[in-house]
Each structure stands twice: as structure tokens, then as C-alpha cells.
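Comment thread on ticket #2218

A.B. wrote:
> Attaching the input chain for the structure job we discussed in standup.
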Amino acid sequence: MCDEIDAASDLEILNTEIALANRPIPAPRSPVCLNADCGEPSLDGASYCSKECCEDHARELWAAKNRRAA
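C.D. wrote:
> Ran it. Output below, let me know if you need it in another format.
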């Protein structure tokens, strides 16, 4: 019975290592606000100058992704 448990444990470790190796690399923080309309310096540890700019940019990205050609 220990052989099945060891095999399951090894499989779990392998799947975890594969998932970690294939995860997307996060984009580095931007010194300038990523909202194209703004151009202000970003807050420390963020890529936006304010919460509103972050929300605006998220809406723009969502709209561009979901835009359909007529």
C-alpha cells in the first residue's frame, strides 16, 4: 500500500513543479501610470497613480479583448 501512496505523492510533486514552471511571469512595475490618458508617476509598489486609473485601464483592456468585428 505504501507504493501507491508514494506514487501519488511523486505525481503530486511533479504536477506542482510543472505548474510552477509554466506560470506566467508577472509584468514588472511601471514607473509611469499605465493608463494612457494619465502619464502621472506611479505610486510606490504599483503601476498606477490611483485606483481610478487602474479601474479605467482594466475596463479598456476588457473592452479591447471583447470587441467583435462587425
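A.B. wrote:
> Thanks. Noting for the ticket: Residues 2-66 form one domain.
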